[in-house]
Amino acid sequence: MFGPIRVTAATPIGGYAEPRPALIAVAHGSRDPRSAATMSAVVADIAAARPDIDVRLAFLDLNAPSVEQVVHAVAAQGHTQAVVAPLLLGSAYHARVDLPGLLATAHPQLLLTQADVLGPDQRLIATLRDRTLAALGPASGAPSAPLTNVGVAVAAVGTASAAANARTGEVAGQLAALTGWHTEICFATTEPSVTRAISRLRVSGAERVLVAPWFLAPGLLTDRLAAAAPDVVHAPTIGPDTALTEIVWDRYDTALSAALSLSA
């Protein structure tokens, strides 16, 4: 997990500096308006879960407001501390390099603590299963029902980092362990492709094959996956979800506790 980016002279009162640290939820950003709309809905749910905390949405790229704009707005509101929670499913370049670099010079009077990414949390794996079951239709049965003839191509973004792709690949294995389905990982921007994953699933004996996007929101890349495999069902993206809200607040609490321990 990431630690505090900058410590200020603020004195903790009752465990934290007043007002209570804000949450800045940082999404990737996309040229597709569906993505920003979905992330706005995600953050609205997050804010509704803890109305006593100032919750803001920022984007790394392509959408407004930017991380810098939101950091300055939070400081102008009177905050001296904020937790920055990446709304990212993997710990690749954006989480490890881009965001820490932005926060390092974001504001001289604000203590910023970067929380961990969402990652392959078991609660999100369960949500991925539920989205897939919904796409399978009424005949799929209860979530716990073993559907051994189902093959699922878990489709993620993909990065230039083989290690990051390998970590993402674990999502398919976790989904298989949870459901008993045949699963394969594939990527929208690198190999293995969705068509290759579908082929491998059919070879393994899967009779009902579909694509489960490991994406928070629809966009250009999910459209690319759909265009590459138009003959199979594509489940919806994760989108607003109770599990997602819970995970973000868990990341907030963990990051804030770590920051307070370091400053004690």
Textual characterization of the structure:
The chain is of the alpha/beta class and 264 residues long. The protein has two domains: 4-118 and 241-263, Rossmann fold; 122-234, Rossmann fold (3-Layer(aba) Sandwich), CATH 3.40.50.1400. The protein has helices at 33-49, 67-76, 93-104, 122-136, 162-179, 194-203, 220-228, 242-263, and strands at 4-6, 22-27, 55-59, 81-86, 111-114, 150-156, 182-187, 208-213, 233-234. The strands form two sheets. It has a five-stranded mixed β-sheet with strand order 1-5-4-2-3, sandwiched between helices. Strands 7-6-8-9 form a four-stranded parallel β-sheet, sandwiched between helices. Helix 1 packs across helix 8 (242-263) and helix 4 (122-136) crosses helix 5. The longest helix is centred in the last third of the chain and has 22 residues, at 242-263. It is elongated and about 60 Å long. Residues 1-14 and 141-145 have low confidence and may be disordered.
